[in-house]
From TrEMBL:
Family, similarity comment: Belongs to the leucine-binding protein family.
Database matches in Gene3D superfamilies: 3.40.50.2300
Pfam families referenced in this protein's UniProt entry, alphabetically: Peripla_BP_6 (PF13458)
Limits of the Leucine-binding protein domain: 9-356
Keywords for this protein: Signal
Keyword Signal appears in the UniProt entry: yes
Native source species: Alloalcanivorax balearicus MACL04
Record's protein name: Leu/Ile/Val-binding protein-like protein
PANTHER family tied to this protein: LEUCINE-SPECIFIC-BINDING PROTEIN (PTHR30483), PERIPLASMIC BINDING PROTEIN OF ABC TRANSPORTER FOR NATURAL AMINO ACIDS (PTHR30483:SF6)
């Protein structure tokens, strides 16, 4: 056990929604960052310097995010974390690039925990941006591989939020399903406003009328919770193949109605074999007593990779840490993850899981969680960094 940390802190600023309808996605990230920072600080922090977490509310608005970015920099943060919303991520990539060009020696890194627009590590790749989550096309590649083996899925409905991520997901689904299962019919496509729909019943009615036997959605936050809740109340009993079926509120609000209905493609699953991870998840829920707690294993991976990179570099300077992150691997309870150097995209296994009851580590204080159905190895998930021409500092 390391001794007390007395040096100046390494400030990490989270810029995510902390108030409003999408706060249920941002607040758990903030608490998870603080939880793991405390754990890492007890073991020496970053090169003996303590980690300090700053939470800044962007109200899931790109322009407000730029205001909060400047506030974070003014407060001495040189590591910026964000992941809820690719529209925000797009604004941050451009702003961080611009700031770093104008302020050599004071650079900041953007650590992306979940904004999965593929272009961020393709044609818009940046030395100052690292993504610690599989991007949308990687997830769709894994999900469509799994769908291709399911003879019972013949008609699919696509429903997504109306912004870049939702459209990218729908296009990827169409393209990959046509290649792998040309017999599958896309019987409907809907895009709805982000975080604006209060009643999804009209959408659910259209889906039921289409005769779909499965639904693919990248909805997150309240948009996935309200969608699947409306489906359950309407009696739409078909599988939801989701990116974020484990979003806060889904499990606690659906409970038994979601069992064997809500599927998820994700870098983690609920029936973990790692008791330490399971107990940590349980402890975090019990400490907070939230109705909507969401466990973010990728936050743990991000901080542990940062710590390992800082140790490797012998420095907490963002430029040195960025260079050390390139190509860095980390052993996790669910396999090896590697930060690909050419585009700063995490290479990770993915898992298809389905909501089940009587799980050893229940989500959101329930007995329900996601049980693993299939594991897709990193080499099957990986995709080329199309159009990435990264400019590195001298």
């Amino acid at each position: 056990m390391a001794g007390p940390l007395l040096a100046a802190p390494v400030k990490i600023a989270l810029i995510d929604p902390l108030t409003g309808p999408m706060a249920s996605t941002g607040l758990p990230v903030l608490e998870h960052l603080r939880f793991d920072a405390q754990r890492l600080n007890a073991n020496g922090g970053f090169n003996g310097d303590p980690i300090e977490i700053i939470g800044l509310d962007n109200k899931i608005n790109p322009q407000e995010s730029l205001v909060q970015l400047q506030k974070a920099i003014d407060e001495g943060a040189r590591y910026i974390v964000q992941g809820n919303g690719s529209a925000v991520g797009s604004a941050l990539i451009a702003a961080v690039d611009k700031y770093n060009r104008r302020n050599p020696g004071k650079e900041v890194l953007y650590l992306n925990h979940g904004a999965v627009e593929p272009s961020f590590t393709n044609e818009r790749c940046s030395f100052w941006h690292f993504r610690f989550e599989a991007h949308s096309d990687m997830k769709m590649k894994a999900l469509t591989d799994w769908i291709a083996k399911r003879d019972d899925i013949k008609k699919i409905y696509l429903i997504n939020q109306d912004y870049s991520f939702g459209h990218a997901l729908a296009e990827a689904a169409r393209t990959m399903l046509k290649e792998k299962r040309p017999d599958i019919e896309i019987v409907g496509t809907d895009f709805h406003p982000l975080s604006k729909v209060k009643d999804f019943t009209p959408y659910v009615s259209k889906i039921k009328a289409s005769g779909a036997d499965a639904i693919i959605t990248g909805n997150w936050g309240q948009d996935i919770t309200l969608l699947v809740k409306a489906a359950a109340e309407f009696g739409l009993n078909v599988p939801f193949l989701t990116y974020y079926g484990g979003s806060p509120g889904v499990v606690s609000q659906l409970g038994e109605q979601g069992v064997d209905r809500i599927y998820e493609i994700y870098g983690y699953y609920g029936d973990t074999d790692d008791d330490a991870i399971g107990e940590r998840q349980k402890q975090m829920y019990e400490d907070k007593k939230w109705d909507y707690f969401l466990f973010y294993p990728r936050i743990t991976v991000m901080l542990e990779m940062l710590q390992k990179a800082a140790d490797k570099a012998g420095s907490n300077d963002p430029v040195a840490v960025a260079r050390a992150l390139e190509g860095l691997s980390l052993e996790t309870s669910y396999g090896t993850v590697t930060m690909r150097g050419e585009d700063h995209q995490l290479q990770t296994p993915l898992f298809v899981s389905v909501l089940k009851d009587n799980m050893p580590y229940g989500a959101e204080g329930t007995d329900f969680n996601f049980a693993k159905l299939d594991r897709i190895e990193p080499e099957a998930v990986t995709m080329p960094a199309t159009g990435c021409r990264m400019r590195r500092p001298q």
